[in-house]
């Protein structure tokens, strides 16, 4: 049977002549099973944290700094405490445990004590009988500031006075690979800037903290890593982890670790102080100010190539703006430096990367971190080399693409499938969209829309290509492990796993795995809390691989328990029995029964872990086997640009992707489309702007997300199913790599349309304006 990926991302198969046609399965892997939470979301019963309620509920509000950099002279809470209805006010002096926290480096205070280091930093929190009272009381707290000059240029951070006791440098990686004295016949140089993209989750952060009789506290929130949040909270509250419980409410959508600990920790402190449940629903402005954003990045590149366009050497300097605190900036820098050359074979590479603290908003994990920024730069460099050599942009990429067995600049061998050339060829060969019709009724399709464009004759079309790559799971020695339990009672199976469903589809995948292994159609996913074993954060496709692997192993253990009595009765091994579509059959057809009959009166369960092979930190020269696996994508963008006003309309996005194995065709397509849409936002509209460290317009009118009119139909022309042998099911996560690749493709298309360098994301209108005279 020959599998063909169609434009919808599904796989169709044509049976050989004489092969009986089997009815399609309605459950298990490879089926487009609907999302597990679709019914709850459509009926309004999905448990969002902002909807939670408890008897005796109090409301919280957080006072945040209006300054990006200031010394706190005094904090006077007297007026707030004396307001009717106010139950508690907490500041840095009321933190009983660790006063600072952080996911990688504990450098971020729960409440600012002596210094304010970014606009919106928490100063104090209030609990009151009514949300308006809480907000008024927070505003009544008198804080005297000595305003200081903010450091907002990351290049100035090297020479500025230390903004933090740990200094301004978060991490420095000087990667060295090959001979530094090698020089190419053709050299291309470029300077690139990437803006501050916000995750902009559908629902802003919210939470409910409930005190426990044992002196502990339960926190109900849309956490994406509940055990890490529990450990942070327990350290802050001065409690043993067993006395703090995090219960995961419905996550409306997340791009990784999106939640703001600066909201959850004050909630718990207020609940412990008052003895009452306390709730906080952050405003959109507070959400923008509190959670982490994509790292703004400055990149300088020099590419060396021979006369035929083969890469000889890449030199680069990468500077990440970490904002006020370290967070996951060290991890982001490692990804940026490691992937600075892209999915190309580069014999010699010298990449120097820094992440520095500034007084800008905090940066952290956002999908495709590090890889997205460098992709925009190295693809810009490939276009420059193509122009200098007079080579087609696709051809120069084809002459340099990576394949399985090649080396990364970190010295690590690419052992996973790397069908980069196949992906690029697929998007190159796909038909191009038709040109705009010469019809007034089609004017709304022009850049800027109806009456928004200037002269239609000023519209130019451009086609651009980009190749991107990301790493999967954690890196540099991260202990990637997840635990899952599968219980079967009669005809119903239950999966217990602390892997949070953030929109990536894990809850649906877990159901499909159990259906596939056990042949049980009704599969439930248990609610998640920290009483369960940890599963780790919902980022970098971890749960598809690690948590999905744990569920599969547990289900297979239950399968063995189910089949052993039958195998013993018929004198055969369990390997000679198969389960499909709810039926158990033997290899010779002698045994045939249903799973439901075999399970009658039984209760089976098993717990299993999945831990991928270990990685290692990069050494002092940036060398090491730091990554578990890699995923690749090719994108072709077609844009129309009004070269007089600089308006850009994305006409078409064509995608080919390395997916390992398709587990849910409809869900996979949705994840790719979502990634492309997020990439278009990064390319054209999304930039959280600041003025001397102060966030401008922290709302969804000032921060422009792409709408349905900004995102064209996304054509998925090829999904390469070359299974990764070390991954459970052979599948690769698919969400991040389209985010990484799409902005670079859009920028390349605008370059092709205008002839302008386009070295900044998002692309500003003035960068696409061309003098027609």
Overview of this protein structure:
The chain is α+β, with helices and mostly antiparallel strands. The protein is 24% helix and 27% strand. It folds into 3 domains: 166 residues, Aldehyde oxidase/xanthine dehydrogenase, a/b hammerhead (Aldehyde Oxidoreductase, domain 3, Alpha-Beta Complex), CATH 3.90.1170; 331 residues, Aldehyde oxidase/xanthine dehydrogenase, molybdopterin binding domain (Aldehyde Oxidoreductase, domain 4, 2-Layer Sandwich); 130 residues, Aldehyde Oxidoreductase, domain 4 (2-Layer Sandwich), CATH 3.30.365. It is built from 15 helices and 33 strands. The longest helix has 28 residues. This is Xanthine dehydrogenase D subunit.
Furnish the topology, listing elements before pairings.
Layout: E1 2-5, E2 11-14, H1 38-43, E3 58-64, E4 70-76, H2 78-81, E5 86-90, E6 100-101, E7 108-109, E8 115-116, E9 122-128, H3 131-140, E10 142-147, E11 169-177, E12 186-194, E13 206-211, E14 217-221, H4 226-237, E15 244-248, H5 261-274, E16 278-281, H6 284-290, E17 297-305, E18 311-323, H7 329-338, E19 348-357, H8 371-389, H9 393-398, H10 420-429, E20 459-475, E21 482-489, E22 492-497, H11 506-518, E23 522-525, H12 542-569, E24 577-580, E25 583-586, E26 592-594, H13 595-599, E27 603-610, E28 627-642, E29 647-658, H14 665-684, E30 690-691, E31 694-695, E32 714-720, H15 736-754, E33 760-761
Parallel strand pairs: 3-16, 12-33, 14-15, 18-19, 22-23, 29-32
Antiparallel strand pairs: 1-2, 3-9, 4-8, 4-10, 5-9, 6-7, 11-19, 12-17, 13-14, 13-16, 17-18, 20-28, 21-22, 21-27, 24-25, 25-26, 28-29, 30-31
Domain Aldehyde oxidase/xanthine dehydrogenase a/b hammerhead: 43-149
GO molecular function: iron ion binding; oxidoreductase activity
Pfam family, one: Ald_Xan_dh_C
């Amino acid at each position: 049977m020959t599998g063909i990926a169609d434009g919808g991302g599904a796989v169709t198969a044509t049976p050989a002549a004489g092969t009986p046609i089997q009815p399609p399965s309605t459950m298990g892997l490879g089926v487009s099973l609907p999302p597990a939470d679709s019914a709850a979301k459509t009926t309004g019963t999905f448990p969002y944290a902002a909807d939670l309620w408890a008897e005796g509920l109090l409301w919280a509000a957080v006072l945040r700094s209006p300054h990006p950099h200031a010394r706190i002279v005094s904090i006077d809470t007297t007026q707030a405490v004396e307001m009717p209805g106010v139950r508690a006010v907490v500041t840095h002096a009321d933190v009983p445990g660790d006063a600072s926290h952080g996911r990688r480096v504990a450098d971020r205070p729960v409440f600012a004590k002596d210094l304010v280091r970014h606009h919106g930093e928490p100063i104090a929190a209030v609990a009151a009988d009514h949300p308006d009272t809480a907000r008024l009381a927070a505003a009544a707290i008198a804080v005297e500031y000595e305003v200081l000059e903010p450091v907002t240029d990351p290049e100035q951070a090297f020479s500025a006075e230390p903004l933090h006791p740990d200094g301004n440098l978060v991490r420095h990686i000087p990667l060295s690979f090959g001979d530094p004295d090698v020089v190419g016949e053709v050299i291309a140089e470029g300077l690139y800037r990437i803006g501050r993209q916000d995750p902009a989750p559908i629902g802003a952060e919210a939470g409910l903290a409930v005190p426990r009789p044992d002196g502990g506290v339960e926190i109900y929130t849309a956490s994406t890593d509940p055990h890490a949040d529990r450990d942070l909270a327990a350290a802050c509250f001065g409690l043993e982890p067993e006395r703090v419980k995090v219960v995961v409410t419905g996550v409306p959508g997340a791009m990784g670790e999106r939640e703001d600990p600066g909201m959850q920790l004050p909630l718990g402190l207020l609940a412990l102080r008052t003895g009452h449940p306390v709730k906080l629903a952050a405003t959109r402005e507070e959400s923008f100010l509190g959670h982490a954003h994509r790292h703004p990045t400055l990149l300088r590149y020099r590419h060396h190539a021979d006369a035929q366009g083969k890469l000889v050497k890449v030199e680069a300097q990468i500077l990440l703006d970490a904002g006020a605190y370290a967070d996951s900036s060290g991890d982001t820098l490692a990804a940026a430096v490691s992937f600075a050359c892209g999915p190309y074979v580069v014999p010699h590479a010298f990449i120097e990367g820094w992440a520095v603290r500034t007084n800008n908003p905090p940066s952290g994990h956002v999908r495709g971190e590090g890889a997205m920024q460098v992709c925009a730069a190295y693809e810009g460099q490939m276009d420059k080399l193509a122009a200098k050599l007079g080579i087609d942009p696709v051809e120069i990429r084809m002459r340099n693409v990576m394949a399985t067995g090649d080396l990364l600049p970190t010295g690590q061998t690419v052992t996973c499938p790397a069908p980069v050339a196949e992906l690029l060829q697929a998007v190159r060969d796909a038909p191009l969209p038709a040109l705009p019709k010469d019809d007034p009724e089609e004017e709304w399709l022009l850049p800027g829309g109806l009456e928004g464009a200037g002269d239609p004759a000023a519209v130019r079309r451009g086609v651009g290509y980009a190749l991107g790559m990301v790493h999967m799971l954690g890196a540099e020695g991260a202990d990637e492990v997840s635990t899952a339990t599968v219980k079967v009672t009669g005809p119903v199976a239950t999966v217990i796993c602390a892997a949070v469903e953030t929109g990536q589809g894990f809850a649906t995948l877990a159901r499909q795995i159990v259906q596939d292994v056990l042949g049980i159609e009704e599969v439930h996913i248990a609610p998640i809390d920290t009483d369960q074993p940890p599963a780790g954060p919902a980022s970098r496709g971890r749960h598809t691989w690690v948590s999905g692997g744990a569920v599969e192993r547990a289900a297979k253990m239950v399968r063995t328990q189910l089949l052993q009595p039958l195998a013993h009765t018929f004198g055969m091994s369990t390997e000679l029995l198969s389960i499909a579509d709810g039926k158990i059959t033997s290899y010779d057809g002698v045994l045939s029964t249903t799973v439901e009959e075999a399970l009658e009166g039984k209760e089976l369960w098993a717990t299993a872990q999945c831990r991928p092979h270990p990685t290692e930190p990069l050494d002092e020269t940036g060398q090491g086997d730091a990554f578990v696996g890699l995923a690749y994508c090719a994108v072709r963008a077609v844009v129309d640009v009004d070269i007089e006003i600089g308006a850009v309309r994305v006409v078409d996005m064509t995608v080919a992707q390395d997916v390992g194995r398709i587990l849910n065709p409809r869900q996979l397509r949705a994840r790719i489309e979502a990634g492309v849409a997020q990439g278009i936002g990064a390319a054209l509209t999304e930039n959280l702007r600041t003025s001397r460290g102060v966030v401008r317009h922290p709302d969804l009118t000032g921060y422009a997300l792409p709408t349905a009119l900004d995102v064209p139909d996304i054509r998925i022309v090829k999904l390469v199913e070359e299974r990764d042998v070390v991954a459970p099911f052979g599948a690769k996560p698919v969400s991040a790599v389209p985010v990484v690749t799409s902005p670079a493709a859009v920028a390349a298309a605008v370059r092709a349309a205008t002839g302008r360098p386009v070295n900044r994301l998002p692309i500003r209108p003035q960068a696409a304006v061309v003098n027609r005279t």
